[in-house]
Amino acid sequence: MTQAKPKPALYDQDLALWLADTIEQLQAGALGKLDVEHLIEELEGLAGRDRNELENRLDVLLAHALKRRYLNSADDYRGWEITLREQQKRIRRLLKQSPSLKNYLSEVFDEVWQDALADVCKAYPDADFPAESPFSRDLELLLTTEFWQPER
After folding, report:
1. Distant-in-sequence, close-in-space partners of 115: CB < 8 Å, separation ≥ 6
2. pLDDT tens-digit readout, 101-116
3. Which ranges constitute the DSSP H helices of the chain?
4. Which of 18, 36, 48, 92 would disulfide-bridge 11, Cβ 3.0–4.6 Å?
């Protein structure tokens, strides 16, 4: 006699349906029916997603700021400036939605700086980039600076 395989959980079958079902249970106050293990997993994933997005956008911002400030490539300036403004805008929106991530930005700045610097150094080995970040860590300045303007 063969033993029947247990039916996979709804979470493993259809994530969208599981989410809708979980929302229904929460709205109904049916907390005892919740798939708590997977709910915690999903919430942790959401928190991590926002931190990863912030790191990625900061990385792109710093890399493009380095390129725009330290490379003499007039044909690329406009594209780099558009990317800089876009990253600043996206970071502002993310921080508006989740203001507590401002602290996280400070925590990861040095690590992200090192990654951005490594990337541009590899892509432009003959360029002379600074070893330490010349860009302000002040969030307001970081998100409003036009990195191509002369420093005052």
Report:
1. 59
2. 999 999 999 999 999 9
3. 10-13, 15-28, 36-70, 74-97, 101-123, 139-142
4. 18
